[in-house]
Amino acid sequence: MIQLSKETQYYFTESAEFKYLRFALKRIGDALVTTFTCDKVLDAAEASEKQTLSATSKATSRVVSNSIYTVKHFGIESVATTMSSNFQPCYYEEHGGLDKWIRPPLSLIHNMSDKELLWRASFVPRIKDYPYPRIPKIAFMFLTKGPLPLAPLWERFFKGHEKLFSIYIHSLPSYQPQFPPTSVFYGRQIPSQVSEWGRMSMCDAERRLLGNALLDMSNEWFILVSESCIPLYNFSFIYHYTMKSKHSFMGAFDDQGPFGRGRYNENMAPLVNITEWRKGSQWFEVNRKLAVTIVEDTKFHPVFERYCRPACYVDEHYFPTMLTIQAANVLANRSLTWVDWSRGGAHPATFGRNDITEEFFNSVRGGSTCLYNNRNSSVCVLFARKFAPSALEPLLQMVDSKVFTDRRL
């Protein structure tokens, strides 16, 4: 190592060349401080480093040009003319490895348009077997205007099963969630847009949720819920019920009345004939294959957007009709989300504090029979809605009293 005299140190400290060099080196630190995600750090730091290395090259070149002066006055026979990079990436990745294809996004925030997102989400491996130990997960997709008043109930539902689920939240763009870092909902909001009930923007929000969830290769089932939904069983039961199912769950029935076929527009033919027109609940539970079918659609979407407008409520007809035409054999033709329409009106009944009793839950869970994997079953619903915020406290008490007990399939 070269030992410098005080005069030499002063020269290098005060010279314009080294002031410029220190300024250039500081750019890497500035770039790292002002970026927020690992990917952005990589991009910004690498770009900054290129600029810095260029700057240091210029600076050291000027220093070398003065080397005769330094030798003459200070007796130094050499100076450094190169600078090596000390930049380290946020993680190490083997070039050309599989990890970059199967790793879920580090952040749900991105700048992709809907068209870009759905295109990316439609990528499908052609080989069925995965070349790595894959643990299938359920993607719970919360379609909400803003807050999740029943979040404490869902927190208890998810607790202890962190490797078996993922969460995605689509809210109004203006809503700023306030979940603590310890919450399962923290950082799970996706880039969202305004969605209106009964219009195509609502279906777009659902496809946006599916598109983001499909970016995680481990997600095998996709369940759409709202802020007023609750689970009727514990996580283990719901996980095994969906994973073992041979069918996806979406209502798709032929309603020949004014609120079914009465909403059909003849301009949809020949792509959609009236005999293929279907109606179903907005809330669905689908497997990965069917989720891809939904996000990759470019044929039915523009037709429904143009010809199914209120009083044709597109969120009740678009997916049921399209999937009946394209994949009817994989539909169970029912939703796993229970709602009560017995009170009449445009919206289902809402239940509050005084409605929450053990008898009520038993009637919801055991009030019907259905087919599950082509066999009769008394378990036909796994979720229920709509529940008001006032129902939270008695719901939590029922969880503590083990009302949400497991049931063997």
UniProtKB/TrEMBL annotation:
Q: What keywords would UniProt list here?
A: Glycoprotein, Glycosyltransferase, Membrane, Transferase
Q: May I have one GO cellular component term? A: membrane
Is Cell inner membrane one of the keywords?
no
Query: Does the UniProt entry include the keyword Cell inner membrane?
Result: no
Q: Per UniProt, what is the membrane topology?
A: Single-pass type II membrane protein
Localization of this protein: Membrane
- State the name under which the record lists this protein: Glycosyl transferase
* Xref: Pfam families: Branch
| GO molecular function terms listed in the Swiss-Prot or TrEMBL record | glycosyltransferase activity
* Primary residence: membrane
